[in-house]
Each structure stands twice: as C-alpha cells, then as structure tokens.
Design a protein that fits this description.
Oligomer: heterotrimer
Order of helices and strands of chain B: EHHHHHHHHHHHHHE
Number of strands of chain B: 2
Structural class of chain B: mainly alpha
Helix content of chain C: 25-40%
Shape of chain B: globular
Radius of gyration of chain C: 24 Å
Number of domains of chain C: 3
Largest sheet of chain B: 2 strands, antiparallel
Distance between the termini of chain B: 27 Å
CATH architecture of the largest domain in chain C: 3-Layer(aba) Sandwich
Structural class of chain C: alpha/beta
Number of helices of chain C: 16
Largest sheet of chain C: 7 strands, mixed
Distance between the termini of chain C: 36 Å
Shape of chain C: globular
Helix content of chain B: 55-70%
Chains: A mainly alpha (306), B mainly alpha (363), C alpha/beta (522)
CATH class of the largest domain in chain C: Alpha Beta
Strand order of the largest sheet of chain B: 1-2
Number of strands of chain C: 21
Chain lengths: 306, 363, 522
C-alpha cells in the first residue's frame, strides 16, 4: 500500500474509538450532563464485548452487548445524577474508578486469550481504487458506522424538533420543565445513548484495534474523548474530524518508533496525552468563546419544582 | 410512592452517618457478590474487614498503607473544597517518587552519608517539590489558558507513568540490577527512620499526623482557609467578597501536589527503597475515594484512610484466602464511592411517602 | 359583581377554585383559597411577596398538585395534572422570569412551547399573524439573547396567544417594563379580554390593578382576605386587605448633602460576555448625606456598572472611579471596603451570603474585624458580631449559628443590609434592596437606608421599582443601554419623564442619537 494511504487508513481506524466516544459524550453534554465516567464505561464494555466475541464468535453480538453494558453503567450514573442530584464530577469519577476495577476483576480470566482470525473487511470494488481504496474502503464496518452516526447526529441535532428540544434542555432546563417537557427523562435518554456509544468505542479497542484484553486496555481514550468534545465545540462533524486528527497522532507515534527515531519510546507514547493537553490549552484560552458554545447548563444540577 | 423532599437545613447528623450507612450497604452488596461467585459471604467480609486488623504486625501494615492515602487525601480535600478538581494526584505522587528518588540517588551515588533525619528530610523535600512542580503545570494551564484541570491533571498521570518508565529503563537503571527496570537501592542514610520495632512503620506516620492537625487548623481557623471554601461553595460570593479565584487554584493545586509528592517520596524512602515501575498501587486514585468517604474533612480522612487501607490489604489477601483476583479491592472501592454519593443525597433531602390521590373537594 | 364583564347568568365562570390548599414542609402556601373568574374578565390576584400567589398559579397551571380543593373550568370539574394538561384545556401562562431559551430564535422558542402539530415554518407564519393583529412587534428570526426584556416578554405573550387560550395568566408582567410599555401592554390585554379571554393578572402594584382590572382577589398568608372591585377601592383599603394595615409611612428628613464621596467620570467598559452590555462614558456623583437612585429596566447595564463600582470588575481605569477624591478604579473589593465602600448585591443566596454557611461565618465575607494578624480567625468575635446584627436589625433567625439558607428572603436581606450598614461605610451601594421581600421587612430596610443617609453616609441605590426610588431617593438618574442620564432632584421627577428616559430619550441620550426610533421601545 502507498505510504500516505496507509497513514490515512490507520488514522481513520485508530480514530474511530475516539470518534464514537466523543459523539456519545457530545449528546450527553448537549443535554447538560457531564459524564466523567467515559473511561470506566469503555472498559466495562470492552471486556464485555471481548467475552461475548470469545464465546459466540459473532462481532454483531459482541458490539451489541458492549453497547448494552455501556448504556447500563451510564444509567446507573444517570439515576444518581439526575434523580438523586449527586455531584456530577464525583459521580462520573466514581463510575470510572468502579469501571476500571470491575473490568479488571471480571477480565482476569480473559487475559492472554485471543479471538479467532478475522477476515479483513473490504468494500467490494471500491477497495481496489488507487489510493482512495486502501485509504478509505478497507475498514471494519464500525468505522463506517461512526461516520454515518456523525452525519446523522449533526442532522438530528440541528434540523429536527427533538434535537432542538435536547439543545434547549441543555441550554436551560427550567423553562423546558415549565413548558411541561420531561426534562429528567430526556437527560437520562441522552446519558444512556452516550453510554451505548462509549460502549461501542470500548469494544472497538478490544475487538479490532488490539484485539485482546488487559487491565486498563483503553489507556485513557475515554478522557481524551472528553477533551475532544470541548475541542469540537460540541458539534458532531468537528468531533469526527478531531478524532481522526488524534488518530493521526497515535499513528505518527507508531511510525516514528518504527523508523527508529532517536527518542526513547516512552516519550513517543506520551504524545497523544501531551497533544490532548496542548489542544485543551489552545481551545480553552478564549473563555468567552467556550461559554458561547457550551451548553449553558452543563454540569449544573437541575431541581424541578422550585 | 416515595418522594425526595428538600430539607430546610443540611442535616449535620446525616453528613457523618452517611459514610457509615454507605459502608454497611457496600458490605451487603459485597456479600451478595461473594455469594454469586460461589464463596462464603461472611468469610469474604472477614478477609476485608477483620483480618487486616488481626495482630500487631497487621495493624502496622494498615497504618503503613494508610499513611500515603491520608496525606494525599488531605491535600485533595483542600483542593476539592475550593472547587479545584485535581484528579491527577497519582501523577503528582509519581513525580514525588521521582523527586525524592533523584535526591536519594544523588546522595547515594555521591557517597554522602548524612544523619538519617537530615537525609530523609532532604528526600522528602525533593518529593514535595516534584509533586508541586507537576501540579503547577495544571495550575498554570488552568490559570493562563482556562484549561479544565480534570483532564489536564489526568493526562499528566499517563505522562508521569511514562516518565518513570523511561527513568528506570534508561538513565536510572541499576547497573548491577541484571537489566531489571529498577534504580539502585538507596543508601540506608536516606531512608526514613523507623518507628516501631518488627514493623515497617516509619516516621512518616508522625508526619502524616502533623499534617492532619495543620490542615484542620488551616481549613477551619484561618481566613485563607475560609476564603478557599467559599470559592468552592459559592463562587459568586467569593467574587463579591474579593477572594481571588486564581489564588484558590494555585493554593489548592500546589498544596495537594506537595502532599501527593510527599507521599511519593515516603514510599521510595520507606519500604521500597528504590524507584521501580510498580511504585503506586493506585494510591492517587484511592485517595480520591478516601477524600469523599472522609467528607473532605481532615479527621474523616484519617478514618477513611484506615478503612480503604484495609480494603487494599484485603484485596491482596483475597487472592490467597479466597482465590479471587486482587482487582476485587478496586471493585469494592468504586462501589463504596457510588453508594456513598447516593447516601449523601439524604443530607440535603428527606424521603417521604406521598400518596397519589385526587384532591378532595372542600366541604 | 363587575359590570364590565359581559355574560349572561347562564354562562358558567371560566375558572372556579374551591378550597384549594397546598402545604409545604415549613409553610402553608395556600389555605382553602376560593377564586372565580368570568369569561372576558381581567381578574387581579393581589398579595405581597410570600402571600401564596405563585403557588396558586402553579396549581392552576398544572405545575403543582394541590393537597385539597376543586377546580372547575367552564363549569366542569377538572384535574390539571401537568402543564400539558393545562394547555390542552386552554390555559396559558406568561412567566415572571421568562421561560425562553437564549441561544434559540424567537420562532424556535415558540415552536417548543407549542404541542406538536405545526412545522417551524408554519409557526413563523402564525407568529407574524398574531403579532400583527395585536400590534406586538416581534421578529421571529432573532435569537432571544439579542432581545431586550420588553421584547422577550412580547415573545412570551405571542407564544401564549398562539395557543388560543381561554385563560391567560400573567405573573408580575410589569416589573420589567417602562411606564410607556406598561400602557401598551394594557391595550393588548384589554383587546384580549374583549374577545372573551379571561386574564389572571398577578401583581402587588396597587395603581396598576386599579387601572386595569375588573375584579380582584386579595391573598394574605395563603388565605383569601377579600374579593373586591378595584375601581371602587383606594390604595389604602387594598393595602389593608393585602398586609392588614396601611402602607407604612417613612419618616423623611430633608437631605443635607455634604462633600462629594463618589465620583464616576468617563467610565467605559466593553462587555465580557456576549449577553452583557457595554458601558459608555458613565458619569455620576454621590454626596455624603444623600441618596442617589438609579432607575432603569433590567438589562441596561446595571450589573456591569455595579460590578465596576464594587470591585468585582477591576478593568476600569483607576481614575474613572474616585472615592473621596482617591482613584479606586482598579482596586479589589477588599481594598474598597477598607476605604469605606460597601455593597449589597441583588442576589442574596449565592452572592451576598453563602447558603450553607452560618450567619456568623457569613459576616466574614465583608467584615474582617474578627481576623487576627497572621490570618487567624477569632470565632467568638464572629459570633458576637453576627448576634449584634441580628438583634439590631430584627432578623428572625435561629441565632448566629443558623445556616443562611434557613432564613426567609426578607430576613436574609435584613441581615445582609445590616451587615454592611453596621460597618459604618462612607458609601453604601445597594442593588434591589427590597426585591422579593415582604412589606414589613421592606419598610424596615428602607427606613434603615434613610437613617444611614441622615447619619452622613452617601448612598447609591439601584432599583427596578420606581415607587421605591421615588420614596427614598434625593436625586435620580436613569440608566439605559449602558449610558447614564444627567441627574435630577426627585421633586422634579415624574413617572412619565423617567419612563421616557428609561428608553434612552434624555437629551444627548442613546435613543435620541440612535439610527432610528425602532429601538426606542424598551
């Protein structure tokens, strides 16, 4: 394969996890709820997906159960934060810590196991096109799913009445409640959806990227996805783009290592994390810009009936 | 049907009862988990809650593990009360190991032999500086660039882990270490003086106790401590009063960074005696849980630190006693925090039975 | 019965409430309330803050369920389980603090406020129709955050009208309008009533009720104290029903103005947020022993000006704000307090006081007498300071150890105002001194402000209640679109003139130099 085509291919594949997670978190945050439990949800889903794939050999079932696992954990978060009004930061953190421990505990028997060989997926005919073929059309179906999702969410958020309602709830839940909308259920639905997508993201790592299971497999991708939603100013297409850019950085790091660049591998491993910090600093610098784009009620508890 | 009703005043009784209730509920859930895994629930609970306290040696181990937890959680308590969400204490702990390790290695390599108290103090100071430096990065980015401290501090944890790896695989690798990723062993002169015979306890415990007293006084008896808390409780009131939000960010992060670094230095200058990639048992993250279970209060943190230390030890025991992976301890920790957060609702809300019936017409 | 509402004896009342009661944990908000509103009638619900008006409206609107009582709509007994159910019946509500989404357009806001059925395009068209037939000027495409307060209210009203309501509820609609805009609103409401819509008009403003409403139910402490025809009542008799006594008289001494204490010159500040207002070349002066009142509709720069004066915003040039001749423009709030400038903000919980902290701890926000060298806190001194304030200003609280949020609005305001007055300031700035406060506490606070003035302090009072400003100010200025008018002695001020100035129409003001008079309306 052409060098650049390979680069694009790997960036897309590598960025898909971030894309899925970021899209899910984006919907979450658009409803006004900040879920710091992304990493935990992704880990639990990753181990669930891996276990199911090992047992049934079906990718579909594996991804499906991963999505369910993510959504389930997200619902625990949702009930605590939306109905019991617990602190959103602390609860999200608790979910991440719990998810880390739980996935490690449950996955002990899965370490070292490997999945059956997967037939590399190709879009018929299109995959043979020069350059574009290897770059874009030789991916796992989930890559295409994430692209379609981004487009669908962008349309839904800005062109449908329910998308408008979600944005309104995230903007200011009080008037939405006064108008009679079930704000809490809307938020829970957003949270569950976000959890399901984080679940898919986690499963993608354990089923496609790695594919294996070890403790802490996702290595902070959940947190990076959280940063991505800020970077994307809560817009789906920008989130997709940002995810692929980050995928590119990960690829760059691997390429540099392979080319024997004279920097210790440890520093190259740091690259995605340092890049996240830099991106965060640059994007947050203009506080007013963030404030304009951020869903105004993000992170604040909602008490109906006051 | 049950309904949540806001209390006029937050219930002080519930604020202290909540962790106890949460612990009880977690124990119940744990028992159910043990049963589901085919183990005797009571034996399971015994491994976590009773065995770690069995005997002088066991108690000293509990205190030993509790010390870094308490130190880190003290700093975090101040930070969280100021609404600065430092989640990267793990990274600051590691930089404390690095800072303390750097001092220890330099003294060892130069062959400088100081009296034990002086040597170990230098190491501890080195650790504090390391932790403070790492936290200062977070503070700077939050202060200058308005970057979210949760994400930045977390990213720095991963960076710190790689930094430690690089050091022990590279420049600090023990030439006599059979190519194992570890640094030279430190000379005895830089290690913390021991506290109690036949235990691994060192003076770090006393340092931690002193820190508890100092933090209590600072939080509740000084104007600055008051200002920090107002910043966390009501940011607009803090602005009205003229309390500097920037000051709160720097104070919170530097103090918690220093405490985490101190804990890290104690770890290398204490039981471990060298720098390895396995220094942290996730102390930085467990400390967050200690902080919340301890109600963000120095005294509570001591009690919670002991409790979570028991859970950590229980996890290690669980492997040999129950045949369960040690990650079980992380599960229980996470569960405890979740249950606690749920129970905390009762501080501000009361549960009442409300009957659903159509209003009757007045006579 | 009023003669202006036309109905035959066979037509049932539009709305009937029998024995509505609602109990909250610490207070009985509604106690066996009866109310009757006929078709085409403008019915006032009068009561002071805390009398139970809001709760009653929430019951009618379905946001809250009563513990007891019966509701009849057009003669049929109904149970209004939710706002959607209320809307289905034909009940529509315009809120006091608007229920609009700032980043969405007016049309999108209205669309969300209607139940399904119409597309956004249809809604936009209907908005145009309704706005035209009632003479309301509303641009459907503009994002709500660019609208003035009066324009936002118009969007709310249009939204309510689009549902073709049989009963329209308005909650304190005029607190954010200029006197001229109030007149326009009344025209719209009378038009509506003539078409047969019933209107519930919640207010505590006696003059308006007497001018507009056909009938009036008076609430006090959750109970109905009277059901009257306002045209036949006087302010005094309505006041007696509302608070059980005549409106309290304040003792007025003639002002003896001394030296200039606060001098603001050329204060210009750019907005910090897209929702804020720029300040342009502000100029004003306050002398010792006088009260300068700043009138204005909310959203015209009051928050920004106050932040610049209190020190919460330190971007002003040092010389733009002079205190006793000393430049303080860049000083922090703590420095300004040391120089004698104290401030009472309009938000009590969350800004003037920390809700979960005790009253004793809350004194530390602005008073540092109990802080020893080295930052040590003298807790006993804190407690005694709080106790002194509680006693002197009649604050009903559980003692210095009570949490701030356990106090009622009026009592907390008394404490906060008292805390600042007790500091013996040179200049006291107060924002909305009696907003949401019961009449008794309001009178006490105003009396204290006057007493402080007589003792030689300079006071700057920002208020949206014109009556209050007329009552306590010696001189008045108006703030509009980030600019401040020249001052005038209160004796020379009339409501009409102030109302015009609130739209920026003073000589040299923003509206008279604006590119068109379209923005002249608040």
């Amino acid at each position: 394969m052409n060098e650049t085509a390979l680069l694009v291919n790997t960036a897309l594949a590598s960025g898909t996890t971030l894309a899925l997670a970021a899209l899910g978190l984006l919907i979450n945050e658009r409803a006004g709820v900040l879920n710091l439990g992304a990493e935990g949800m992704m880990l639990v889903a990753a181990v669930a997906g891996f276990a199911v794939a090992l047992g049934t050999g079906s990718d579909l079932l594996a991804f499906g159960s991963a999505a369910l696992a993510g959504a389930a954990l997200a619902c625990v978060f949702g009930v605590l934060v939306i109905w019991l009004n617990t602190n959103q930061y602390a609860t999200g953190l608790a979910i991440s810590l719990f998810g880390y421990g739980f996935s490690a505990f449950v996955g002990v028997g899965l370490v070292g196991k490997s999945l059956s060989e997967r037939v590399p997926f190709q879009v018929p005919w299109l995959a043979d096109l020069p350059f574009v073929g290897p770059a874009l059309f030789r991916h796992h179906p989930m890559v295409y799913v994430s692209m379609l999702l981004a487009v669908a969410l962008a349309w839904w958020l800005y062109r449908s009445r329910s998308g408008l309602l979600l944005r309104a709830v995230g903007e200011n839940p009080e008037p939405a409640h006064a108008l009679g909308y079930p704000v809490r259920w809307i938020r829970l639905a957003a949270v569950a959806f976000g959890g399901a997508l984080c679940g898919l993201a986690g499963a993608y790592v354990s089923l496609v990227t790695a594919p294996l299971w070890v403790e802490g497999l996702t290595a902070g991708r959940g947190w990076i996805a959280l940063a991505l939603t800020v970077f994307a100013t809560w817009r789906p297409m920008r989130a997709l783009l940002g995810a692929y850019l980050f995928g590119g950085i990960t690829v760059l790091q691997l390429n540099l290592q392979a080319q024997g660049v004279q920097i210790a591998s440890h520093f190259l491993t740091m690259l995605p994390y340092l890049a996240t910090i830099v991106v965060l600093a640059l994007i947050s610098r203009n506080a007013a810009f963030i404030r304009i784009n951020m869903p105004a009620s993000l992170g604040k508890p909602f008490h109906p009936g006051t | 049907m049950l309904k949540l009703e806001a209390r006029a005043e937050p219930s002080r009784a519930m604020a202290w009862a909540s962790p106890v209730i949460a612990l009880a509920l977690t124990a119940l859930l744990a028992a159910a988990l043990f049963a589901a895994l085919g183990k005797d629930p009571l034996r399971g609970l015994e491994v976590f809650l009773v065995e770690p306290l069995n005997g002088r040696r066991a108690l000293s181990e509990v205190l030993l593990k509790a010390t870094p937890l308490i130190l880190i959680a003290l700093g975090l308590a101040l930070c969280y009360r100021a609404n600065v969400w430092n989640i990267g204490a793990e990274g600051q702990f590691l930089l404390g190991c690095v800072g303390g390790g750097a001092v220890a290695l330099w003294l060892t390599q130069q062959g400088i032999v100081l009296p034990r108290l002086a040597g170990s103090t230098l190491v501890l100071v080195g650790g504090m500086l390391g932790g403070m430096l790492w936290a200062a990065v977070v503070a700077l980015l939050r202060d200058r660039f308005n970057a979210n401290e949760i994400l930045v501090s977390l990213m720095l944890v991963y960076v710190a882990q790689q930094l430690v790896n690089w050091l022990v695989f590279g420049p600090w690798k023990d030439p006599q270490g059979f190519n194992m990723p570890q640094s030279r062993m430190f000379d005895a002169s830089v290690l913390l003086p021991p506290l109690l015979e036949r235990t691994r306890l060192h003076v770090g415990v006393l340092v931690a106790l002193a820190a508890v007293v100092a933090m209590t006084l600072f939080m509740f008896r000084t104007y600055r401590g008051f200002a920090l808390q107002v910043g966390g409780l009501a940011p607009m009131a803090a602005r009205y009063a003229g309390f500097s939000a920037r000051g709160a960010i720097w104070t919170g992060l530097l103090v918690s960074g220093a405490m985490a670094g101190l804990a890290g230095a104690m770890e290398v200058a204490g039981p471990v005696r060298q720098v390895t990639p396995y220094l942290s048992m996730g102390y930085g993250f467990t400390a967050i849980i200690v902080c919340f279970v301890g109600r963000l209060h120095p005294v509570g943190v001591v009690l919670a630190g002991i409790l979570l230390s028991m859970l950590l030890i229980g996890g290690e025991l669980a492997q040999s006693r129950l045949g369960l992976p040690s990650a079980l301890s992380s599960v229980l920790q996470g569960l405890l925090l979740l249950v606690l957060l749920a129970c905390d609702t009762l501080i501000n809300y009361r549960i009442r039975r409300v009957s659903r019936q159509a209003p009757r017409s007045a006579a | 019965m009023s003669a202006t509402a036309t109905q035959t004896s066979a037509t049932p009342p539009r709305l009937e409430l029998h024995g509505i009661s609602k109990q909250y944990p610490s207070v009985r908000a509604n106690d066996a309330v009866d109310l009757r509103a006929q078709p085409g009638e403008i019915h006032a619900v009068l009561g002071e803050n805390g009398a139970g008006k809001s709760t009653l409206m929430k019951v009618i609107y379905g946001a809250v369920q009563p513990d007891a009582g019966e509701i009849r709509f057009n003669g049929r007994t109904v149970r209004i389980a939710s706002p959607a159910a209320a809307r289905a019946l034909g009940i529509s509500m315009v809120y006091q603090h608007f229920s609009l989404f700032d980043t969405l357009s007016a049309a999108e806001n209205v669309w969300l406020g209607l139940d399904r059925g119409m597309s956004l395009h249809e809604v936009t068209r209907r908005i145009g129709e309704v706005a035209h037939s009632y003479g309301l000027d509303v641009d459907p495409a503009r994002p709500v955050h660019t609208l003035s307060v009066g324009e936002r209210q118009r969007v709310e009203i249009v939204r309510a009208l689009l549902t073709d309501p049989q009963l329209l509820i308005l909650d304190e609609p005029t607190s954010v309008l200029t006197p001229q805009a109030v007149d326009k609103l009344f025209v719209t409401l009378r038009q509506l009533a003539a078409k047969g819509t019933s209107i519930l008009y919640i207010s505590h403003k006696l003059d308006e009720i007497r001018a507009l409403c056909h009938h009036c139910t008076v609430l006090r402490g959750g109970k109905v104290t009277g059901e009257v025809d306002p045209a036949r009542e006087s302010n005094a008799s309505l006041s007696r029903l509302m608070i059980g006594a005549e409106p309290p008289e304040l003792k007025h001494q003639a002002a003896r103005a001394g030296a200039v204490v606060l001098c603001v010159r050329g204060l210009s500040l750019a907005r910090q947020d897209q929702f804020d207002v720029d300040l342009h070349d502000i100029e004003l002066e306050v002398r010792a022993g006088e009260i300068l009142g700043i009138a204005g509709v909310s959203g015209n720069g009051q928050q920004e000006l106050l932040a610049a004066l209190s020190g919460e915003d330190r971007r002003a040039e040092a010389g733009a704000v002079l205190l006793d001749g000393r430049p303080v423009g860049g000083h922090s709030p703590r420095q300004r307090r040391r120089e004698g400038l104290h401030f009472v903000p309009e938000e009590r919980l969350g800004r003037g006081a920390v809700p979960t902290m005790t009253l004793a701890a809350n004194t530390l926000l602005t008073r540092t007498e109990a802080v020893a060298n080295g930052g040590w806190l003298r807790t006993r001194q804190l407690t005694s300071l709080a106790a002194r304030i509680i006693e002197r200003f009649g604050v009903k609280a559980g003692g210095p150890g009570a949490a701030a949020r356990s106090l009622s609005g009026g009592n907390l305001q008394k404490f906060i105002v008292g805390r600042e007055i007790d500091a013996r300031p040179r200049l006291l700035i107060v924002s909305q001194p009696t907003w949401g406060v019961d009449v008794g506490a309001a009178a006490l606070i105003r009396g204290e402000l006057l007493a402080l003035r007589d003792a030689g302090c300079a006071l700057l009072v920002v208020s949206e209640e014109l009556d209050e400003l007329f009552e306590i100010s010696d001189r008045l200025v108006v703030i509009a679109k980030g600019r401040v008018s020249p001052s005038m002695p209160v004796a020379e001020a009339t409501v009409e003139r102030i109302g015009e100035w609130m739209s920026g129409l003073w000589p040299g003001g923003p509206a008279s130099t604006a590119k068109g008079t379209a923005h002249a309306e608040a």
